[in-house]
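Hey, resending since the last one bounced:
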Amino acid sequence: MQSREEFAQSRRWVIKIGSALLTNDGRGLASDAIARWVAEMADLRRAGRELVLVSSGAVAEGMCRLGWRKRPHAVYELQAAAAVGQMGLVQAYESQFQKFGLHTAQILLTHEDLANRGRYLNARSTLASLLKLGVVPVVNENDTVATDEIRFGDNDTLAALVANLVEADLLVILTDQHGLFDADPRTNPKARLIEEGEANDASLEAVAGGSSGLGRGGMLTKVRAAALAARSGAGTLIVPGREPSVLSRIADGEGIGTFLRPARERLAARKQWLAGRLQMRGRLRLDSGAVRVLRRSGSSLLPVGVVGVEGDFARGELVACCSPEGQEIARGLVNYSADEARRIIGCPSERIESILGYVDEPELIHRDNLVVI
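The structure tokens again:
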């Protein structure tokens, strides 16, 4: 996929809605707007699309409930506002989605959840299960426990990382602007909308503006989010959230907002990301049959094809896959720890549960998390 129309027809979307839209620029939750967006998302679900919603607004809603007019700077005050506001935010989504017979699930993440490979895979598995069940996950940063050291910084970044996490085809960022302009449209009447571009174009950052008072983001964070989302091959649309039927119009292929396309196809981009990672946590020694299968068909690596385990790695960490002669022929993110792997190597996948007492995945490394060198 490379065109806007192809991405608009794709199956898996991450939709991010910003604080200014959700909270009527700080005047409380925009209930009517939330109802409209949810109705459109319900239509998208009926059309077969899988949706993950990344929602800002907890801190802003908490500020409104607490009567605060200015966003605080102290972390403990932000955490208190988030704790209060999250209640109203989740309730608003849950009640609206239930009107269409759709279940929602609250997912709160910190940077550590995605930086730690084991927790990354746990979050990925949970989200994949929810999507398979037809549930709409509602994701937000866990502001009530996050500190400055482990913050994403803004929900645009979080949305892009979630797009990587679930291998989304399209990231849709709803904002209070009409898209990305070549100058600030609030001060320059001659500013022109950039309808399309490449997500990794460094020149786009130069024309991105500052942030609003409510959120931590701005157009610059959206441009950077598009570059992050492109890392796993997702396209990004930056669109005006207040426009009528904005999500439906995107699905119909209308040229609304700014479309930033990835430089590479989804699978190729993910494989390149894996190939470029340098820090290996261990090695798996394969038999000759497994080497042939990986090289010829790019299949997943099953425990039965592994004859040895070296190193001390955790679930989700990067390991090298080596031939009987010791040559690295692939690398990937492993589904089991070193200790677990040592117990199941050489065995068929159907025996994993009887050996370990549980089974996370039938593969030692799934083909989507494996790149042949």
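The chain has a mean pLDDT of 87.

Sorry for the duplicate.
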